[in-house]
Amino acid sequence: MEKLLRGAPVAAALEEKLKTKAAALREQGVTPTLAIVRAGAQEGDLAYQRSIQRRAERLGVETVCFELPGDCTQQALLDVIDRVNGDGAIHGCLLLRPLPKQVDERAVCDALSPEKDMDCVSTGALARVFTNRTPIPPCTAQACMEILDFYGVDPAGKRAVVVGRSLVIGKPVAMLLLARNATVTVCHSRTADLPACCREADILIAAAGQAGLIGADCLCPGQIVLDVGIHTAADGTLCGDVRFAEAEPIVQAITPVPGGVGSVTTTLLLSHVVEAAQK
Fold first, then answer.
1. Is the pTM of this model over 0.85?
2. SS3 category, 67
């Protein structure tokens, strides 16, 4: 197995299948279409939107953007979600978060139809993840599983430790690992003796959202480490939840940051749109 579990070849393999499926749909007169709903103009959201649009165009997926001002009302957002839900030509929706402070984010997320929820932000879509009934898991959680599969790591029978308990990554990826017959422990920043828990892992997924939380004391030889975190360090470089310089000499394999899990996520989002269009 390679030491660095890079996301680019995983994304490339997924894209080849995606292009074929999207082309077949277009031949049938169906254009896979993603709605992107954004409130405000945060630079991070704009950069992510541009990245999605560039990749979507390359892969044969249409994007439709609904852009609201940062001071929009909750009702204005709900009206847009209602429009997306009712438009049969739109197969999936990405709601960029966090939403403005004046908006009840949970209410807006839950207004989105689970069938069009491409990243499992609604309670209805998440319920399907936790009952093992969804073909569309949260993109970043699924990206972890795609990387494991691509590099030949079978979770069955292995000890997996997930550091992080968010509904975006931590809890969903724990469910996906359980579905693949791993024995899963979910830890977090307040876990007593976190390093000892981490050292028990065959597969360690760092998704706590804290830069450099996982160091050498959490690691041991033979581990597969997936670092989901992405942060900007004091010197302006990007880093993850794992202190890469400490981890790389110890573990069997590790995802880099950047260039690891995140590079697979956008491709999976568009893959979900194509799957929804096929249905």
1. yes
2. strand
